[in-house]
Specification:
This protein is of the alpha/beta class. It has two domains: about 120 residues, Transcription Regulator spoIIAA, CATH 3.30.750.80; about 180 residues, Vaccinia Virus protein VP39 (Rossmann fold, 3-Layer(aba) Sandwich). About 30% of the residues lie in helices and about 30% in strands. The protein has ten helices and 16 strands. It has a seven-stranded mixed β-sheet, with helices on both faces. A five-stranded mixed β-sheet has the order 1-2-3-4-5. β12 and β13 form a beta hairpin. α4 packs parallel to α5. The longest helix has 15 residues.
Length: about 325
């Protein structure tokens, strides 16, 4: 259980970080990294537009929720909150059915446009567990933005096409997005339109990957392949079993000298997993580096945090 008394630290950290965010979306408290005793199941994200979203990942005692509501009330009377133009505080209960969201202050916008690295994305609030942008991948999208010029890019498990938006902004000649959730790809199309991108450069394939290798290969070869799968997706993907199926295909998908950004966000899977799997199933690809995670996602164990690994083809 979390500790109501520890919420003093929670609001102190938010107050220290929120002013530096400006209008950009940022994680401003990350208890999930286990760096704050008694606050391991709570996070907070500044969405800009005056909106602070708190998430709780495990049901707690009534005393904790009372202390949280009191703390929010006090925080919303602070000079920091006024200076950042704070309007709304919502709490998403990730542990409850439907990820129930309640409003503690102001009015919750059910849809909001946020800005990250100068690019805009539309998020949904109060509808589902994930709102449309994984904030821990901020530096991964920045890397793509900085390394996509004149490249043909394949974005696997594209979700709402955050990597694609970053790639087109970075000057990619072509991006192919693949995801079995067509509704997510539709939001991805909207994200590109929000940034006034030329959609002639972008393809959206609403297919299950392992049944669509022909379509994927037809659009290649690719200079950059991004693999950012879920850890587990019932009936379609189990990371520890199915990642190898993708890596085996890389030699026929990636051009000579091409890059692969391979990602894992399962705490119990170590960075060595990707290096070992690549060495076994696609030895043409040499490990270059692991990208840094955003500093706001501090973690007591870096091996448990998000793994974003850069490989390069060297035949």
């Amino acid at each position: 259980m979390m500790k109501p008394d520890a919420l003093k630290i929670f609001f102190e950290v938010i107050a220290d970080r929120i002013a530096a965010c400006g209008d950009e979306v940022r994680r401003v408290f990350h208890g999930r990294g286990r760096c704050y005793e008694g606050l391991e199941q709570i996070t907070a994200d500044w969405l800009g537009n005056g909106v602070l979203q708190i998430a709780i990942f495990k049901e707690d005692e009534p005393e904790f929720y009372t202390a949280l509501r009191d703390g929010v009330s006090q925080f919303c009377q602070s000079d920091v909150w006024r200076k950042v133009g704070g309007k709304t505080v919502v709490v998403q209960h990730r542990d409850r059915e439907g990820a129930e969201t309640e409003t503690l202050m102001g009015e919750m916008p059910f849809q909001i446009n946020v800005v990250e690295n100068g690019l805009s994305y539309t998020l949904d609030l109060g509808k589902r567990q994930n709102n449309g942008l994984f904030l821990d991948m901020r530096l991964g999208r920045q890397w793509v933005q900085e390394n996509a010029a004149h490249k043909c890019v394949l974005n696997l498990f594209a979700y709402t096409c955050g990597f694609s938006v970053a790639a087109v902004d970075g000057g990619a000649d072509k991006v192919v997005n693949l995801d079995m959730a067509r509704s997510s790809l539709s939001r991805g199309r909207e994200n590109h339109q929000l940034n006034q991108h030329n959609l002639n450069k972008v393809s959206f394939l609403g297919h299950e990957l392992f049944k669509s290798w022909g379509k994927v290969k037809k659009n290649g070869p690719y200079d950059l392949v991004i693999i950012d799968p879920p850890s587990f997706q019932k009936g379609s993907f189990v990371l520890t079993k199915d990642y190898a199926k993708i890596l085996r295909r890389l030699p026929e998908l990636v051009s000579e000298g091409g890059d692969v950004l391979a990602c894992v966000n399962a705490p119990d899977v170590k960075p060595s997993f990707l290096e070992e799997q690549m060495a076994e199933f696609a030895p043409q690809f040499v490990f270059v580096s692991r990208l840094e995670n955003p500093p706001e996602f501090e973690d007591i164990d870096t091996d448990s945090a998000l793994k974003v690994m850069h490989f390069k083809r060297q035949d």
